[in-house]
Amino acid sequence: MSDSNALDGLTQALRKLPGVGAKSAARMAFHLLQHDKPGALQIARALEHAVGSVKHCALCNTLTEQDICSTCANPQRDRSQLCVVETPADQAALERTQAYRGLYFVLMGKLSPLDGVGPNDIGLQILFDRVVPRNERGEPLPAESREVQEVILATNFTAEGEATAHVIAQALKSRGVQVTRLARGVPVGSELEYVDLGTIAHALVDRR
Amino acid sequence: MSDSNALDGLTQALRKLPGVGAKSAARMAFHLLQHDKPGALQIARALEHAVGSVKHCALCNTLTEQDICSTCANPQRDRSQLCVVETPADQAALERTQAYRGLYFVLMGKLSPLDGVGPNDIGLQILFDRVVPRNERGEPLPAESREVQEVILATNFTAEGEATAHVIAQALKSRGVQVTRLARGVPVGSELEYVDLGTIAHALVDRR
Ligand SMILES: [Zn+2]
Ligand SMILES: [Zn+2]
After folding, report:
1. Of B33, B34, B50, the CB nearest to A9
2. What are the boundaries of the C4-type zinc fingers (chains A, B) (predicted)?
């Protein structure tokens, strides 16, 4: 379309960004090359650095550069509570309330059968093994011997988030785990990341 | 905000993209690292390649990897007509009509006093020197000796595009150049890049 294969290639590549169509990608490429080449190189280096260094926390599944993320490694956190969220952004929203001192499990997604996202894609088995570990003989530990005493479901209050919470609740309750859900102080249909701190804090206290 | 400096750095860097705020940048970073690391590396490589290889055409000022772009170098184009556009995307929109066989000058912007964009920032002097060259004694060539016989102003029909066209028209007319403007078949207030081909073709024929 333009006179430059490199420009066209950049426009094509920028369409990999979620929510960016052909026109937006062309404008972004033009802006960077015409007005902000240092910014373009900064993005390139940040992408390469992040791809090379970011991995999943072995305990909570969030994105981190360590084997165990700083939250999971923090001895001050209450290890008997485990809060299940969809994304690191949701976890960050909960952390900003300063109303929760337990640990997290980050699904890095949500059940979405229409998009082909099933239980294994969001690490549900890892979550179940974390909450109900097995002894050397492969038997599930009895409730009183488990570290996690309560699982708080903080998936979004969207249709898919509710369905995800439902599936997790069913599975964990059948294994004798106490499962609670953030109270519906969070407006139905909204996404956690965009909710004000007070509402989230209230919903944490009122969890059911 | 997250547990990863690399993730936060990527989110910060993505805010360099026009129209991308903090929330969008965080979602883009999360999406790339969780779901599309190959896409992330593709964007990084495309940025580096484009920054390293894309420059301005010495004749028309558009983005290209050559010293002279393929349009300017094309011996089949009518060198007596010069069409002035704001961006390569606008030029591409005109090319798609197949209604114009002359050459282009790409401003790579528009006059925008409120944003501090003045005549020198959009290469107006380069345009004037192109249209009215000087002889060895530094005198402007007389009209009959000039290669460019007509300048067609095809800046956008926005307030800033109209003002840019007005400034160019005034300057060139005072130098004895025939200056025309795309006909107002193009809806007032719209941007060329988004106009349908037929309207642009019609406006080319009806230029005034
Ligand atoms: Zn962790
Ligand atoms: Zn050129």
Report:
1. B50
2. 57-72
Question: What is the radius of gyration, based on Cα positions, of chain A?
Answer: 21
Residue B105 in contact with residue B60, Cβ under 8 Å? yes
What angle, rounded to 10 degrees, do the helices at B22-35 and B37-53 form? 110
DSSP-derived pairing of the beta strands B150-153 and B78-85 = parallel
A77 burial (CB, 10 Å; 0-12 / 13-18 / 19+) is: middle
Report d(CA A25, CA B173) in Å as an integer.
Answer: 37
Contacts of B16 in chain A (CB under 8 A): 32, 36, 39-40, 42-43
Ligand 2 centroid to B73 CA: how many Å?
7
Consecutive H or E run containing B85: strand B78-85
Distance between CA atoms of residues A98 and B132, nearest Å: 68
Q: Is the pTM of this model over 0.90?
A: no
In this prediction, does ipTM exceed 0.90? Answer: no
pLDDT of B1 higher than 80: no
Residue B188 predicted with pLDDT over 80: no
Tokens standing for B195? 């106009």
Residues of B in contact with A36 (CB under 8 A): 16
Scanning chain B, the segments in alpha helix (DSSP H) are 5-14, 22-35, 37-53, 70-73, 88-97, 124-131, 159-173, 197-205
- Phi, psi dihedrals of residue A117, rounded to the nearest 5°: -95, 105
